[in-house]
Amino acid sequence: MAGNSTEPGQSVTSRVAAVLLTFTDGNVYSLTEIARLTGLPVSTAHRLAVELAATDLLERDESGRYRVAGSLCRLGAGWRQPTLAERGPCVLDDLSEATQHVARLGVLAGTTVRYIEKRPHHPVTAFDAGARLPAHATAVGKALLAFSPTRVTERLIAKGLTRFTRNTITSPDRFRHNLTSIRRLGMAVSKDELQYGSGAVAMPVFSGNKAIAALELHVADLRTEPRSLSAALAMACGGLARELKATLPPELLEGLLVQSAPAQAAAAHPAEVSKLNVA
Questions:
Q1: Distances from the Cα of 28 to the Cα of 20, 33, 228, angstroms
Q2: Are 145 and 156 within 8 A, CB to CB?
Q3: Cβ–Cβ < 8 Å for 232, 95
Q4: What pTM, to 2 d.p., does this model score?
């Protein structure tokens, strides 16, 4: 049935909404049909249809039937789902201010990570917006690889896990094990894997069951900071997912969409977190 029924006692707004919702299927209706589909008296349906036509929300054809007017169609067409590039910077601003840490947003581009935004913009580092870095040596990259199809990881491994420092994970088996641990905890860490003096913790942002991006925080001490920062990071990832009309997979809701309680990763023992960075 097109439209929604109304009951006596409902507000004028509810009745107007019922009439407009009748046309969600794109069809043309007579007054009698509008009254039947909405459950309104014919006299009420007539009055509302005439008023909606007068305001250019409906239009009446030569046979006396009604359809959606062009202005209402244009109003609907003016809305679009926000993009990652639009909402990401806002989330990074809030995350950086709340944690007082440098926050970054990245996406997987083949076997590399492309950093989209960074807050604050200074100091300038290799992890700035626009940078492309090897996925296997960054927290963002590992967070995304852990929740990507296996073929993506295997393609990267086939190309070789380049060593950048003594902490870079270059063994295929150890790298696969590392990604398994990341999937279990819902969090990735990196310490001195790409360059010395760089440490980070990252979590993925989901759209359905797909990790479309990851948020990352710069950390100096992997023994304590991931535990204290993971709740804020998880809330930011969940918030960005909701803003993008995304949903998290059920198995990660408890760990990644936290309210006031710590995230699964936050509750992890420091020893578990440290295992995420074993080369």
A1: 12, 9, 58
A2: yes
A3: yes
A4: 0.62
Query: What is d(CA 97, CA 93) in angstroms, rounded to the nearest whole number?
Result: 6
Find the mean pLDDT for residues 19-46.
88
Confidence class for position 198, pLDDT limits 50, 70, 90: confident
Higher local confidence (pLDDT), 179 or 256: 179
Domains located in the chain, CATH noted: 16-74 (1.10.10.10), 84-245 (3.30.450.40)
* 56 φψ region: left (φ > 0), alpha (ψ -120 to 50), beta (else): left
**CA 21, chain centre distance (Å):** 29
DSSP letters of 198-212? Answer: -EEEEEEEEETTEEE
Instruction: Say if residue 123 is preceded by a cis peptide, omega within 30 of 0.
Output: yes
**198 within 8 A of 164, measured Cβ to Cβ:** no
φ, ψ dihedrals at 47, nearest 5°? -60, -45
Residue 174 has pLDDT above 70, yes or no: yes
Structure confidence at residue 166 (pLDDT) = 96
* pLDDT for residue 66: 92
**CB-based contact 49:81 (threshold 8 Å):** no
Residue spans of alpha helices (H) in the chain: 12-21, 31-38, 42-54, 70-77, 84-99, 139-146, 150-159, 172-185, 225-243, 250-256, 264-267, 270-275
Three-state secondary-structure class, residue 252: helix
The amino acid that residue 7 corresponds to is E
Those residues with Cβ within 8 angstroms of residue 261's Cβ, 6 or more apart along the chain or in another chain: 231
